[in-house]
Amino acid sequence: MSDTDMDLLSVRDLRTSYFTRRGELKAVDGASLRVGRGEIVGVVGESGCGKSALALSILRLVARPGRIVGGSVSLEGRELLSLPDREMREVRGGSIAMVFQEPMTSLNPVKTVGWQIAEAARAHEKGLGKRQALQRSAEMLKAAGVAEAERRLASYPHQLSGGLRQRAMIAMALIRRPRLLIADEPTTALDVTVEAQILGLMKDLRSEFGASIVLISHNLGVVAETCDRVYVMYAGEIVEESDVFSLFERPLHPYTAALLKSLPRPDDRSPPGTRLHTIEGSVPDLLARPAGCAFAPRCEKAVPECAVAAPGLAQAEEGRRVRCHLYAQGGSR
Ligand code: SF4
Question: What is the pLDDT of residue 46?
């Protein structure tokens, strides 16, 4: 990875483990990624591959028995892992905001949406009056695509649909004008129409507010729709890094290729009722990682070396890196 002056976020060799009675579970195992200014970067992989642990690690929100055990997270050149807790809280309330899959877990059920967004605004901007904060909340709800925003200010979270709650969460995150928004499966609980609207909103927010976005998803279709670049994670490791166009045109890592094959395609001519491709097996138990490549037990292209030696992340093409023995010398097969 070559960091540039343009990078907003630079994560290097980040390692986060959960220390359980059965042993050390390496949820994030040496992940490196970068996010440029105004860039939308996807992190994709199946459940349990370490995507959410990576997001929580960037924010230093890993709960016990988890712990960040090494690496670096730098935001605009400022190392976050060594910041005092108080300064880190300011970063979370200011420069970085997070949107989760289920807004009900983050919204307070006994406070109106308007009150919650206004409080976020006032926490960010000292001296902001209540009336002014409510007015800003309405503007931000409008920017997040909420119709009749003024009226919605008086709604409690349970009175809103899932899509509206997610928009309210996004408004609450953005009212602090963060430079980086981390969205963890923001559309998973929504139907496809609302999902498309929220993803469209993410792209608008980038152009309107200049925010960089890290979009975490298990859904490659969502990532294709929204992101500029993608990191594919498997068993706690980044296994492929690519611009989104090349990744979908020609996935390099066998895991990425298998994920893509399991996506429904609009140009698919298979007879009705044909089952989609599925990846046999499951993500390995991270407490008992196989020796060699973690994907080897499920990989259709495995060679004998894969079972004994773990591949490193190597540059395969300009702007593309892949963790696979098939590309170890920068070749492509
Ligand atoms: Fe498959 Fe081997 Fe590449 Fe792992 S290193 S993805 S097992 S070919």
Answer: 87
CATH topology classification for 1-95+178-263+278-284: Rossmann fold (3.40.50)
Q: For 221-240, how does the pLDDT look when each residue is reduced to its tens digit (9 = 90+)? A: 889 889 999 999 999 999 99
Secondary structure E strands in the chain: 7-20, 23-36, 40-44, 66-75, 78-79, 96-99, 180-184, 212-217, 229-234, 237-243, 313-317, 320-323
Residues 6+ apart with CB under 8 A from 236: 26, 27, 28, 29, 31, 49, 50, 53, 286, 294
CA dist 326 → 1, 11, 238, 289 (Å): 19, 26, 16, 21
With a 6 Å cutoff on the Cβ, whether 324 touches ligand 1 is: yes
The answer to whether the CB of 134 is under 6 A from ligand 1 is: no
Q: Among 253, 298, 306, 332, say which to mutate for ligand 1: greatest number of ligand atoms within 8 Å of CB.
A: 306
Predicted local distance difference test score (pLDDT) of residue 320: 95
Which pTM value belongs to this model? 0.89
Helices assigned H by DSSP within 97-219: 113-124, 130-143, 149-152, 162-174, 192-209
Tell me the CA distances in angstroms from 230 to 68, 240, 245, 305, 318, one per residue in order: 23, 8, 10, 27, 14
Backbone φ and ψ for 245, nearest 5 degrees, come out as -65, -50
With a 6 Å cutoff on the Cβ, whether 182 touches ligand 1 is no
Q: Does residue 101 surpass a pLDDT of 90?
A: no
Q: What pLDDT does 270 receive?
A: 66
Domain residue extents for the chain: 1-95+178-263+278-284, 108-177
Percent of the chain clearing pLDDT 90 (strictly above): 58
